[in-house]
Design brief:
- The chain has three domains: 155 residues, Beta-Lactamase (2-Layer Sandwich), CATH 3.30.450; 126 residues, OB fold (Dihydrolipoamide Acetyltransferase, E2P) (Beta Barrel); 99 residues, Efflux pump adaptor protein, beta barrel domain (Elongation Factor Tu (Ef-tu), domain 3, Beta Barrel).
- The protein has a six-stranded antiparallel barrel. Strands 2-1-5-4-3 form a five-stranded antiparallel beta sheet.
- The protein contains eleven helices and 20 strands.
- Helix 1 runs parallel beside helix 6.
- By secondary structure, it is α+β, with helices and mostly antiparallel strands.
């Protein structure tokens, strides 16, 4: 007897049942949140999904740690807040673009996909406690919307099973409770050193930046990353074909101008007109000589040489070969391997009043058990956007001992002045309350 080959509907139904089973089999909230934004991507083909619980982003597709200050996180939280204000957050629906305000529509165009589906998460009284923002380019069919609605019920049931949210009741005597509250208040007044964590990287100190000396295409790299170089070594070469042709043309033009000057100088003894044109031909010779010299200088710049001893600090040579670059574009850096500093990217929400000389402890990702001590030297007044899309202040710190290898990354712990433990624990909640209430 030949087994029947399952059709498309059977395969889709099997994948849907597997998603429900995986959700209910989750052992904790974090694994469930990860499954909710990632596992259904193969079935519905969405670009990204965001899980929001109580109005805050809890998980994102392909992201292990949600950055609360990221532009996309702010957009989905704003969009979910508008659906809640309109009384539509408890309904599974395709989100209409005109249902959001102008700012949210502009952010949608730049941060999310073309069509989005809002999948609410509701409790036993059908009150929403969260939802999923699921976005992709293709429209949502009625069959997909029905499957998503059923899947939302399974996700809600699995979430409530892991986090039922039962009220916590005090059952201790009042005197004991009062003693615990008094001890907690005294503990909150205990002075501790304020500190924050931030990503950091070991970078060269006082290195020589090697920039492109001309507009052109890089033909070859003669050094490798972290290779030791000496002063005068050739680092890279530009494609010199057009520059050589330009130099040859300038040389021939100079020869022609010199010949014309010489001929007119000989005729000047007998021809008054030739005598009057000698200055013109002499100026033309100087012009052609200047063009020839400039072409030779460009030809000499096609070979970039090291101006000091050190190591070549750059990421990859292959991404530069054959790529057109502009004058002044940074190519690499020549740095002394024993001279390095610590560059820290401090998030805006973690910014404290750090003084120059503040203590910094570095824990490298490659050696998290070893602590490197440094001291803060400079801090930027203006926040800039990092490669991850986060606004952060740049801080530079000097190592107290021999620095680690250039290029290593890790986590820096910055220590500030002493303050109450309550301020250390409640600094972020108080800042959020101040931004919300305005007091």
């Amino acid at each position: 007897m030949t087994a029947q080959v399952p059709g498309l509907a059977e395969r889709v139904f099997a994948q849907f049942l597997a998603l429900e089973r995986q959700a209910r089999a989750a052992k904790d909230i974090d694994s469930l949140a990860y499954a909710m934004v990632n596992d259904a991507q193969g079935l519905f083909g969405y670009r990204h999904a965001a899980l929001l619980i109580a109005g805050k982003a809890r998980a994102l597709t392909g992201i292990s740690v949600v950055e609360p200050n990221a532009p996309f996180v702010a957009f989905v939280e704003n969009a979910a807040g508008q659906l809640l204000a309109q009384g539509r957050s408890a309904q599974a629906q395709v989100v209409a673009t005109d249902s959001l305000n102008a700012q949210a529509q502009a952010d949608w165009q730049s941060l999310s996909a073309g069509t989005a589906f809002w999948l609410p998460l509701t409790d036993r009284r059908q009150q929403p406690f969260g939802g999923l923002w699921i976005a992709r380019e293709q429209p949502w069919s009625e069959a997909e919307q029905a499957l998503l609605s059923q899947l939302g019920d399974a996700y809600s049931h699995a979430w409530l099973a892991l986090q039922p949210g039962k009220p916590w009741r005090l059952r201790w005597p009042r005197k004991k409770i009062a003693a615990i509250v008094a001890a907690a208040l005294l503990l909150l007044l205990l002075p501790v050193r304020q500190s924050v964590l931030a990503p950091a990287e070991v970078v060269p100190l006082g290195g020589q930046v090697v920039a492109a000396p001309l507009d052109g295409v890089i033909a070859e790299f003669l050094v490798k990353p972290n290779q030791t170089v000496r002063k005068g070594d050739v680092l890279l070469r530009f494609d010199a074909t057009s520059i050589k042709a330009q130099a040859d043309v300038a040389e021939r033009s100079l020869n022609v101008a010199e010949a014309e000057l010489k001929a007119n100088s000989q005729r000047a003894f007998s021809d008054a007109e030739s005598s009057a044109r000698i200055d013109l031909f002499a100026a033309r010779v100087e012009q052609k000589r200047a063009e020839r010299d400039y072409a030779r200088q460009l030809l000499a710049r096609t070979e970039v040489r090291a101006e000091r001893d050190g190591i070549a600090v750059f990421a990859d040579a292959q991404r530069w070969i054959g790529k057109p670059v502009q004058t002044g574009e940074r190519l690499m850096e020549i740095a002394a391997p024993d001279q390095a500093e610590l560059r820290i990217e401090l998030a805006v929400g973690d910014a404290l009043d750090f003084k120059p000389g503040a203590e910094v402890a570095l824990f490298l990702d490659s050696d998290p058990l070893h602590r490197h001590t440094a001291h803060l030297q400079r801090s930027a007044y203006e926040a800039q956007q990092t490669a991850s899309g986060q606004l952060a202040y740049r801080l530079d710190a000097e190592f107290s001992e021999a620095p680690p290898r250039i290029g290593l990354r890790g986590t820096a712990k910055l220590f500030g002045e002493r303050g109450p433990l309550a301020l250390y624990l409640l600094r972020r909640p108080l800042a959020a309350l101040r931004q919300t209430v305005g007091l």
